[in-house]
């Protein structure tokens, strides 16, 4: 189970506060999303996000993420 670094958590939390995009890699797939909130449910951290173009909602589990990077 991969763990995010402190810098990756900072990028994720900063994007939630600023309403900016992040790139999240999970199982070889890149998701560019706008994270809305980070919360804990059932003992797992969850990122609720939206797709920047379509507006579709996505639920991503932090423990399944391989990497997170701020999109500039």
Topology:
Elements: H1 6-18, E1 22-26, E2 29-41, E3 44-50, E4 57-61, E5 67-70
Antiparallel strand pairs: 1-2, 1-5, 2-3, 3-4
Which fold name is given in CATH as the topology? SH3 type barrels
Structural class: alpha+beta
Strand content: over 45%
The overall strand count is 5
Describe the main β-sheet briefly.
5 strands, antiparallel
Question: What is the mean pLDDT?
Answer: 92
Please characterize this protein's 3D structure.
A hairpin with a 2-residue loop joins strand 1 (22-26) and strand 2. The chain has one domain: Roll (SH3 type barrels), CATH 2.30.30. The protein has one helix and five strands. By secondary structure, it is of the alpha+beta class. It has a five-stranded antiparallel β-sheet, covered by helices on one side.
Label this structure with key terms.
72 residues; alpha+beta; SH3 type barrels; 5-stranded antiparallel sheet; 1 helix; 5 strands; globular
How do you describe this structure in short?
With 72 residues, the protein is α+β, with helices and mostly antiparallel strands. 18% of the residues lie in helices and 47% in strands. The protein has one domain: SH3 type barrels.
